[in-house]
TrEMBL record:
The gene is TPHA0O01410. Its main location: cytoplasm. This is DNA mismatch repair protein HSM3. It comes from Tetrapisispora phaffii (strain ATCC 24235 / CBS 4417 / NBRC 1672 / NRRL Y-8282 / UCD 70-5) (Yeast). It is found in: Cytoplasm. CDD domains: Hsm3_like. Keywords: Chaperone, Cytoplasm, DNA damage, DNA repair. GO terms for cellular component: cytosol; nucleus. Residues 308-482 form the DNA mismatch repair protein HSM3 C-terminal domain.
Length: 482
């Protein structure tokens, strides 16, 4: 089919859908026509026809939804969403006026609310509604506890789409600061969680000049108060700071450094460290929050600005043989840090056995820590492990050139075992996928590096992908281990 004929087909489908939506009563196959229309416009980057009539028809039906209970309004909204993405925004505003959007946001019509949110999300320029009351209404919806979860998700998508605009950020964070502070200082859990999500979205685009400590920082005193109130608040706070660290860990030389934020985060890290150190005094923290604390400690270890993780370690975490969570820490802390400060512990815990897999996978991801323990890696010890555990380890090692070199030069038996599958019956899907990923990782290295192993590895991967080995896995056959 030529490009011109494809375009004609899409135009015909759009027109057919429009005619059907204008028919009274609606045809019984209207949902099928909407599905067909959606399929054909989903990947368009621009419109081959004027979409104004179709958009107006959808708007009219969203207003009169009660009349057609069989009409799939969710499907209609999806069609509308894709039209909004490809239609010129001035056309959109001709159909959805400011008054229409405002009326939709204060209506009880879920479909209308979703359509209004989508229009705001796709606004061009992004600040076009910044001086209007629309964002005030959006915030009111967001912090109304009974608002449908799907609408909450769409509001958060709207924030993500527009948060980089200075005027929008000013409308939300400055004009509505009293609203946000009132929630921060006394809201129920659900709205407190929503407030933290909103802040985590906007803080990504905040610079030092516009950073508002009163808004963005939950102080040690506030944390202590909320821990006493409900442990779920504490979990939400940890997640908030964890998301903030995600932004700090993005390695992008084109962005302005945000290391200035450390002055605000240092007291928070200390508080979290104190709660970990005193975990036996806080039963709920020990029972419910350790995994969340570990997650943020891991990120701090990778950021480690001003040696902040080393300070945490010395004063609160105490990574040593007596720490009951030492295996956990060795499994997630930046291996570069572990190499520099805990090399003796690394060597002690780097045994090649299933119970140490999480530690091994972490340590091999850094060349220095790998070199410190590489003598522990022998083909004999690796092959003693169950096959799945072998693949768990090799999948990680196959990602790093220095590990691959070591395997090639000192453990070629491992590659022979990987290639010579010999019809071994492995029923665990994860094991099969790990083996495939390991081979795929390996063949992405230079042919010169892999040498004579390159061709058999490629052949084996082709067998897995195209000769039905995965399809032949039988769910009732017992696992066999090498």
């Amino acid at each position: 089919m030529t490009e011109a004929s494809e375009t004609n087909t899409v135009v015909n489908i759009i027109n057919e859908t429009y005619i059907a939506l204008e028919t009274n009563p609606l045809p019984t196959n209207i949902n099928s026509l909407l599905e067909k229309c959606l399929t054909n416009i989903r990947y368009l980057s621009s419109s081959p026809v004027n979409l104004d009539p179709l958009l107006r028809s959808i708007k009219a039906l969203l207003l009169d939804k009660e009349e057609y209970l069989f009409l799939d309004d969710q499907l209609m909204i999806e069609v509308m969403d894709h039209i909004l993405k490809i239609a010129p925004f001035d056309l959109v505003l001709n159909v959805f006026t400011m008054k229409d959007i405002e009326s939709a946001l204060i209506s009880n019509n879920t479909s209308l609310i979703k359509s209004a949110l989508k229009v705001i999300e796709l606004s061009s320029p992004k600040s076009i509604f910044a001086s209007s009351p629309l964002f005030d209404l959006v915030l009111k919806l967001y912090f109304y506890e009974e608002t449908d979860l799907d609408i909450i998700n769409k509001i958060e998508n709207l924030f993500r789409s527009l948060s980089s605009d200075e005027l929008v950020a000013n409308k939300i964070l400055v004009n509505n600061k009293p609203v946000l502070l009132s929630i921060k200082k006394g809201a129920a859990l659900i709205n407190y969680s929503r407030m933290l999500e909103l802040l985590s979205i906007f803080v990504v685009h905040i610079n030092q000049a516009t950073f508002d400590e009163e808004l963005f920082i939950i102080t040690p005193e506030e944390i202590a108060s909320l821990v006493d109130k409900d442990i779920l608040f504490f979990i939400q706070i940890i997640n908030y700071y964890s998301k903030l660290l995600d932004d700090l860990l993005i390695d992008d030389f084109t962005r302005e450094s945000k290391d200035w934020i450390y002055q605000y985060l240092e007291p928070i890290f200390n508080v979290l460290g104190q709660y970990y150190k005193k975990r036996d005094e806080y039963v709920e923290i020990k029972l419910f929050t350790l995994s969340y604390l570990f997650q943020i400690f891991r990120k701090v270890s990778y950021w480690n600005y001003e040696n902040c993780f080393n300070l945490l370690d010395k004063h609160y975490l105490e990574l040593n043989y007596q720490n009951e969570h030492i295996i956990d820490f060795l499994s997630f802390v930046n291996p570069k840090y572990l190499y520099e400060y805990h090399s003796e512990i690394i060597k002690e815990y780097a045994d090649i056995k299933p119970s140490r897999l999480s530690i091994l996978r972490n340590l091999v991801s850094n060349e220095k820590s790998f070199n410190l323990i590489k003598d522990n890696f022998t083909a004999e010890d690796i092959l003693k492990m169950p096959y799945m555990e072998q693949m768990v380890l090799l999948e990680r090692m196959s990602q790093y050139k220095y590990c691959v070199k070591y395997i090639l030069h000192t453990m070629p038996t491992i590659l022979g075992n990987l290639v010579n599958f010999n019809g071994l019956h492995i029923i665990e899907t994860e094991t099969v996928e790990l083996r495939e990923q390991t081979i795929d990782n390996l063949i992405h290295f230079d042919v010169d590096l892999l040498g004579t192993w390159y061709a058999p590895l490629v052949d084996e991967l082709n067998k897995i992908k195209y000769h039905g080995i995965v399809k032949e896995v039988q769910p009732k056959v017992e696992s066999m281990y090498l």
